[in-house]
Every structure is written in structure tokens, then in C-alpha cells.
């Protein structure tokens, strides 16, 4: 096993649980990712920390529940955060790139940041040596503009104008970075955060068919299943170029590749066998594909039912790099998955929690049981027998319901309360805009 592995962490955006062939997709378009699953470990119970974008990214980069951060809470950071000193990841917060950087890793982010706007926040302020991509939540794939029509493509801190389809630009920059880094002998962390298959629904062949100005980047019009899976296929092909760069660099045995999504699927996604989607704490909104490939360390063709969250990857990667995560930045909420990567049978039990102000949602999983509260109603599901969350056992299992409710409340009491101005949608956080300091 490599003592200090290279890490390539690939994050899709709004990808559904069953959108990959290896997860049963009915529109197979992911031969590269399916190949990574065959060469590595596939998680059946991988979860995002949130059913929304920015909150999951807070958890992923910090290794902690996103609820601990004033800038995260419920909503994705939209245009309301453009001048805010609050809505973003503090440069002082120990996080994955800064921790690994101090341990001798070179670090780069290619793709989507979405953790606060410059000049107060940004990838390089939080430990990435290199950055190419967008700082906001979504861009036109050709114009590279956000919902407000503001251009959003950067090389480090400089705005750049580069011709090309955004998914391809991100993948090609990532592959180039691997090629450069492979020859240095220094371990690296490469975060590849695609916006695909997040709206707008644009394919490479749509270059001369831009989104009508009246629609901006609206995701409530247009699109199709065919366009969606075309976007997934384009992302998969880009990942193929990154994998090829690893192979050509002769660093396969020394490189851990992780692939997952920031939340569950949206309009055209396939979340089978689950119900719910992005913005829901039903399984379809939080259960996501999760693959880890590390030839020579992760046994090929493995499958595990280990419950894993986005925030687990910081302690996992620190563990793999031989770095004491607690000593390098304080207490974490995530759990290292390294033992499971080495042996899928070495799984462990744990409790995991979610909450959202939107629809007053609360969720807690312990073993196969899930407590869910939504819109003032309580549910209890046995996911092992009822993955679609259709058979509410609340009345049949009153003691279990009460115990799980109390466990959720005890956990929630350890978290800061949801800010009264937290919301999902636009416009919001008016008082922060009025007083960004």
C-alpha cells in the first residue's frame, strides 16, 4: 500500500443514485465510472451530508457537520452571498486542502467551488495551490455565466475567458494537472468538482443553440432525459481522460480515486429504488453513488453496505496519508473509512443525522431504521425491508419511534440552532446583505 497516496476526489452535481450503469441505470452512459467500480469498491449506502449543494460541500471539505458553520445552514450560497463576509468557508477553518498541504501535498481544485465569493472566500484562501473553475453554483456551459448573467470562470484569482464546454474544460485541466503532478514525486490532492449534470440542460452540440435570454439558467423549462444522460456521458468521458492521465503517469497503484455526488438527483435523474429528490431528506434526496478505486489496496469488485457520509472523506484521506486528523485541526464529526477500503467486511455501526429548515425536515439513521420528520409529520422506516419509504412503522413501533426521536433531539441539541434567516430560495438573508460585516 502506498504510504502517501495521491488523491483524486471527483464530485458530480445533482446526480441520482441510479444514474450510473453500476447502480442499475436504465440509460447506461458511464463505462468509465462503471470500470472504476469494477476495479474498486462500490458503496450501496453512501450518503451526501445534505440534499443541497453548498451544505454538503462545507461538510466534505471540513469533515464536520455543516450545521456548525454560520455560512452553511440550509441553503446553497447564491447571489445573496456575493458581498457577504459571512456566507462562506472561513480561510481560518482547517479543511482538507489546507491540512494535506501542511502534510506536504500539492493541492488543486478544478471545477465548482460554491463556498463563498471572493474577496472574502475562495479555493486558494482555503489551501488549494491551484484553481480553475467557477465560484458560484451553476454556469451556462458555453458562456460560463451564472444565473445573473455574470461571467464566472477563474484561473486562481483572475477572471479568464476560455472557449469550450465547461465539463470538458474542467476535465482537461484536471488531466493536465495529473500529468504535471505525476512527474514530481510529490503526493497530490486533486479535487474535480463538475457542475454536470446540474442544469442548464446543455450538450456539446447545443453550442449554437444558447439558452434564451428570457430563461437565463432557469431549470424549470427545457431539458429532457436524453439531454440529461448526454451530460452524464460527457462527464464520464472527461473522467476517462483523467484516468488515462493516471495510467500514462504510471501512478495507478499510488492513486486513490473517489467518485460521488453532492446530493441526490433532480428533475431527470433516476433515484430508483428510492423516492424523493434534491431538497428532500427522503432517500432519493440524500443517497448517492459512491465509488472508491485504489489498485493494490482496494480489492477489485467489492461492494459494501457501510453507511458513509460526505464528511467521512476528510478523516479517511488524512488516515490514508498517515496524518493525525485531530492533531492537525481539531475534532471531526466524520469517521475514517480506511478500514472499509482495505476490507469491505470490516464495516462499523454508526448514527447519522440530517436537518433542514425547508419543510421542517429531520432525519436520523441507525442500522436499517430511519426516523424522518417532515411538515410536522413523523415516520419510521425499515430501509432493509422498505427502501422506498412507503411503510410507515411509527404506529407499530412506538417505543422505537420515541427512542429515535429522543436520540435525534439529543444530537440536535449539540448543534447550533438553524439561523432564523436561513432559507432555501431567492431572495433571502436580507439582513446579511444589508450588513455584510
CATH third-tier fold name of the largest domain: Alkaline Phosphatase, subunit A
Instruction: Write the element-wise H/E pattern from the N-terminal end onward.
Output: EHEHHEEEEHEHEHEEHHEEEEHH
> Oligomer, anyone?
single chain
Tell me, rounded to a whole number, the average pLDDT: 91
Q: Segments where pLDDT lies below 50 for 5+ residues?
A: 426-437
**SS field, number of helical segments:** 10
Main structural class: alpha/beta
Rg from Cα: 20 Å
**Looking at this structure, what is the CATH superfamily of the largest domain?**
Alkaline Phosphatase, subunit A
The end-to-end span amounts to 48 Å
Kindly provide the name of the CATH class of the largest domain: Alpha Beta
Question: How is this structure best described in words?
Answer:
The structure is a single chain. The protein is of the alpha/beta class and 437 residues long. The protein has two domains: 344 residues, Alkaline Phosphatase, subunit A (3-Layer(aba) Sandwich); 60 residues, 2-Layer Sandwich (Arylsulfatase, C-terminal domain). Helix content is 24%, strand content 16%. The chain contains ten helices and 14 strands. The strands form two sheets. Strands 6-5-4-3-7-1-8-9-2-10 form a ten-stranded mixed sheet, sandwiched between helices. The protein has a four-stranded antiparallel sheet with strand order 11-12-13-14, with helices on one face. Helix 4 packs parallel to helix 5. The longest helix has 24 residues. The C terminus is likely disordered.
Amino acid at each position: 500500500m502506498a504510504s502517501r497516496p495521491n488523491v483524486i476526489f471527483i464530485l458530480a452535481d445533482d446526480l441520482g443514485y441510479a444514474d450510473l450503469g453500476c447502480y442499475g441505470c436504465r440509460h447506461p452512459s458511464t463505462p468509465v465510472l462503471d470500470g472504476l467500480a469494477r476495479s474498486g469498491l462500490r458503496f450501496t449506502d453512501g450518503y451526501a451530508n445534505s440534499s443541497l449543494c453548498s451544505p454538503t460541500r462545507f461538510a466534505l471539505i471540513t469533515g464536520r457537520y455543516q450545521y456548525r458553520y454560520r455560512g452553511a445552514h440550509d441553503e446553497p450560497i447564491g447571489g445573496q452571498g456575493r458581498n457577504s463576509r459571512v456566507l462562506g468557508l472561513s480561510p481560518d477553518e482547517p479543511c482538507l486542502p489546507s491540512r494535506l498541504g501542511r502534510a506536504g501535498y500539492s493541492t488543486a481544485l478544478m471545477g465548482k467551488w460554491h463556498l463563498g465569493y471572493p474577496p472574502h472566500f475562495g479555493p486558494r484562501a482555503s489551501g488549494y495551490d491551484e484553481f480553475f473553475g467557477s465560484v458560484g453554483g451553476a454556469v451556462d456551459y458555453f458562456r460560463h455565466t451564472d444565473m445573473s448573467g455574470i461571467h464566472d470562470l477563474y484561473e486562481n484569482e483572475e477572471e479568464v475567458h476560455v472557449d469550450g464546454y465547461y465539463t470538458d474544460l474542467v476535465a482537461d485541466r484536471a488531466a493536465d494537472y495529473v500529468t504535471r503532478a505525476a512527474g514530481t514525486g510529490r503526493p497530490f490532492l486533486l479535487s474535480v468538482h463538475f457542475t454536470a449534470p446540474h442544469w442548464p440542460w446543455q450538450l456539446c452540440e447545443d453550442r449554437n443553440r444558447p439558452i434564451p435570454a428570457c430563461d437565463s439558467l432557469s431549470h424549470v423549462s427545457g431539458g429532457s432525459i436524453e439531454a440529461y444522460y448526454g451530460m452524464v456521458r460527457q462527464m464520464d468521458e472527461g473522467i476517462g481522460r483523467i484516468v488515462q492521465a493516471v495510467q500514462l503517469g504510471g501512478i495507478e497503484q499510488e492513486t486513490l480515486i473517489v467518485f460521488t455526488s453532492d446530493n441526490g438527483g433532480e428533475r431527470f435523474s433516476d433515484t430508483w429504488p428510492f423516492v424523493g429528490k434534491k431538497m428532500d431528506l427522503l432517500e432519493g434526496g440524500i443517497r448517492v453513488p459512491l465509488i472508491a478505486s485504489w489498485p493494490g489496496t482496494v480489492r477489485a469488485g467489492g461492494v459494501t453496505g457501510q453507511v458513509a457520509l460526505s464528511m467521512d472523506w476528510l478523516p479517511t484521506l488524512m488516515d490514508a496519508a498517515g496524518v493525525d486528523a485531530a492533531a492537525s485541526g481539531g475534532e471531526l464529526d466524520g469517521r475514517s473509512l480506511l478500514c472499509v477500503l482495505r476490507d469491505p467486511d470490516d464495516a462499523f455501526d454508526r448514527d447519522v443525522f440530517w436537518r433542514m429548515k425547508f419543510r421542517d425536515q429531520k432525519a436520523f439513521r441507525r442500522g436499517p431504521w430511519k426516523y424522518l420528520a417532515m411538515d410536522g409529520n413523523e415516520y419510521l422506516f425499515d430501509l432493509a425491508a422498505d427502501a422506498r419509504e412507503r411503510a410507515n412503522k411509527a404506529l407499530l413501533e412506538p417505543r422505537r419511534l420515541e427512542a429515535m426521536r429522543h436520540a435525534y433531539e439529543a444530537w440536535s441539541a449539540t448543534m447550533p440552532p438553524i439561523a432564523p434567516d436561513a432559507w432555501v430560495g431567492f431572495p433571502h438573508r436580507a439582513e446579511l446583505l444589508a450588513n455584510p460585516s
